[in-house]
Write a structure and sequence with these properties.
homodimer; alpha+beta; four-stranded antiparallel β-sheet; 32% helix; 33% strand; binds threonine
Chain lengths: 160, 160
């Protein structure tokens, strides 16, 4: 398991944007990302979970700090077209990623990351994964601690 | 934009599992994925969005069909330890991914995908992204249509 992870990446330069209570019907996320694409805004993580019974769900994404104001402005203007309840944002987040190969075959990679962060009381705000990466959003003040404990947990610093 | 996408992948062999109202405190997701890791269950997408004010949030992940029963059984047994409200699952989903390079710099990739699916009335159940990929969960009956419209939308079939 440990040899699957090649590195831990941290990025404090991203801001988190969340639109709450977006209609869970075709076209909603298209209406959110079309103005952002037209303005050539860099979008990194996009997270949407399955909606509950109310027919709506939240959508979160991250942008570089430099693009935040523009993104918020565009989405405020698009509120009627998109249909959301609140537009929230938070600049005090960090994206922490465990990067490796063959992640898909192993819940252990994710479990190691979540366990190591939990042991130090670091709260996970959001999660997204791909075959090569598990990424979480945490509070930016915990970045250094998170990177350190994950290096140890995955045996990247020789102490694992 | 179109040259950034190299392919469209579809996987109907995954089942979606959602735990609702998980406590948004350190340790919750560690308690969910530890038993799955111990049982060597393959977990693919993991999606958790930012919790709303109630201090809880839903967690969704996908597993191969073959692992579903085992995963549900483990999580039912862990309900007290994890602390969740309902354990939901759905086998009639498909994961559709637009794969390419340099995604991070471009909301356009996501916007193209969401727009193409919306135009055909395909509802997006969940979203997760990485630098090389945008993945969505849709109803499995729409798989072939989704793959076809996305090939066209990204110019992969020469018609784009
Ligand atoms: C919530 C959002 O993803 C919606 N289901 C859509 O397809 O646009
Ligand atoms: C919801 C879950 O991610 C929780 N915040 C945790 O850190 O485990």
């Amino acid at each position: 398991e440990q040899q699957l992870i090649t590195g831990i990446a941290a990025d404090k330069n991203e801001a988190k944007v969340t639109l709450t209570r977006v209609a869970d019907t075709p076209g909603s996320v298209a209406a959110i990302f079309a103005p952002l694409a037209e303005a050539a805004i860099n979008v990194d993580m996009i997270i949407q979970n399955v909606g509950r019974d109310k027919g709506e769900t939240d959508v979160t994404f991250t942008v570089p700090m430099a693009d935040l104001t523009k993104a918020l402005d565009l989405l405020e203007k698009a509120q009627d077209k998109v249909g959301y309840n609140r537009l929230l944002h938070d600049t005090r987040v960090a994206k922490i990623s465990a990067v490796g190969v063959g992640m898909r075959s192993n819940a252990g990679i994710a479990s190691t990351m979540f366990g190591a962060l939990a042991d130090r009381g670091i709260n996970i705000q959001a999660i997204t994964t791909s075959e090569i990466k598990v990424s979480v959003l945490i509070h930016e003040d915990e970045t250094e601690l998170a990177v350190r404990v994950l290096h140890t947990a995955y045996g990247l610093d020789g102490e694992g």
